[in-house]
Every structure is written in structure tokens, then in C-alpha cells.
Design goal:
This protein is α+β, with helices and mostly antiparallel strands. Helix content is about 40%, strand content about 30%. The chain contains 1 helix and 10 strands, in the order ββββββββββα.
């Protein structure tokens, strides 16, 4: 464990290492350890306040206790020359009364004129390449993507297999509809044919009646003569 031996606070690590990646926020955690039997106030400053977000940037550490500070580097759009970082951090600490609340911490508490016992520790920021585990994770992510593509391919085949019966059913339904239409058409033609036959039979009976009537008239006429 790389710890700076300040008079009041032990700080770990003393070098903020950021695995640099473009367009990605990167965080680093500082652990502050109060080495005294008094309450210690702290404040974290940086030479690039617009580039880093420090939470909390000030607060209290109880006697013989620890506190964490998260330093987040905002997403960067450009790679710095030779991956060099010139940013610095300053951790100020001062012994304060127990009655002091974290929200009451001010910059004046860390000056020599305040009458408090103060301490300062300087830290530097360093850009490092992503670790091998992260790289392996990235490769695994690619493999995972390929596996996902292969897995998604199988459902497509399944969908194709499942779609075949549906296609067959659809074809059978079309054939059924065609058969029904043909049946209806045949029924209509049969009805027309029956009507024609009925008309023909009706016409034949009428002619027969007329012929018989005429023959009867002729026969009666002949008998009278």
C-alpha cells in the first residue's frame, strides 16, 4: 500500500492513476486516514478544477477513522502528448474542534494564520493504459458479441422451421377457398341447368296439351260431319 505519511492524514494512493480512455469518465478513489486522536478537517484542491470532479472536496475525518474521496476525470476528447499529465492535487488538513460540522469547513481553517495545526500533501495525476484485464474483458466482449450473433442466428433458423408449417397451412387455406368458390360456381351452374330443364319440360307439356286440344277439336269436327 503506497501511503503518504502526513502529520495528520495518511493518504492512499499518493499518485492518482487514471486508465485513460477517450470519451469516458474515469474515477480514482483516495482513502484518507486520520492518524490522530482529534477530529481533522480536510479540503482537496486541484490545478485543473474544470477537468476533475472531487466528491466530497471537503469534510471531516473522525479520530482514528477513515474517509473516501472520489476524484473523477471528465471525458476527454483528445489524447495528451505522450500520455503525460501535468495536473496536481493538494490535500489540506487541519485539527478542528469536535463541534465543527462538515458543512462549516472553510478555506480559512487551513491557513497558518488560523491558529490550527495544518498539514498539506501534494499528489500528482498519472495517465496509464487500460489494464490487461480490461483489454481481455474487451476481447471477451467481442467474443460475446460474436456468440450473441451466433445465438441469434439459431432462432432465425427455428423461425424458418416454424414458418414452414404456417406456409403449408396458408397454402391449404387458399386451396380450400378456391375449392369453395368452385363448388359455389358449380352449384350456380347446376341451378341454372335445373331451371333450363324445368323450362324445357314446362314448354313440352304445353305443346302436348295444345296438340291434344287441336286433335280433339278436329275429331269433334269430323264426327259432326
Amino acid at each position: 500500500m503506497n501511503t503518504e505519511s502526513g502529520e495528520l492524514l495518511g493518504i492512499d494512493p499518493i499518485e492518482l492513476r487514471f486508465p485513460f480512455e477517450l470519451n469516458k469518465q474515469i474515477s480514482c478513489t483516495l482513502q484518507l486516514t486520520n492518524k490522530t486522536d482529534k477530529q481533522v478537517a480536510f479540503k482537496v484542491k486541484t490545478t485543473s478544477p474544470k477537468k476533475y470532479c472531487v466528491r466530497p472536496n471537503n469534510g471531516m475525518v473522525a479520530a482514528r477513522s477513515k474517509a473516501d474521496v472520489v476524484v473523477t476525470m471528465q471525458a476527454q476528447r483528445d489524447v495528451p502528448p505522450d500520455m503525460q499529465c501535468k495536473d496536481k492535487f493538494l490535500v489540506q488538513s487541519a485539527i478542528v474542534a469536535k463541534e465543527i460540522m462538515p458543512k462549516e469547513v472553510t478555506g480559512d481553517m487551513f491557513t497558518k494564520d488560523s491558529g490550527n495545526i495544518v498539514d498539506e500533501v501534494k499528489l500528482k495525476a498519472v495517465y496509464v493504459a487500460p489494464s490487461s484485464s480490461q483489454s481481455e474483458g474487451y476481447e471477451d466482449g467481442n467474443l460475446g458479441s460474436l456468440s450473441y450473433q451466433e445465438e441469434t442466428k439459431e432462432p432465425k433458423e427455428s423461425e424458418k422451421i416454424i414458418s414452414e408449417p404456417f406456409a403449408l397451412i396458408s397454402k391449404l387455406m387458399e386451396e380450400k377457398n378456391s375449392a369453395v368458390e368452385l363448388n359455389n360456381k358449380l352449384r350456380q351452374e347446376l341451378d341454372l341447368l335445373r331451371r333450363d330443364i324445368s323450362r324445357q319440360h314446362g314448354g313440352f307439356s304445353l305443346v302436348l296439351v295444345l296438340v291434344v286440344a287441336i286433335l280433339g277439336i278436329l275429331l269433334g269436327f269430323l264426327m259432326k260431319r
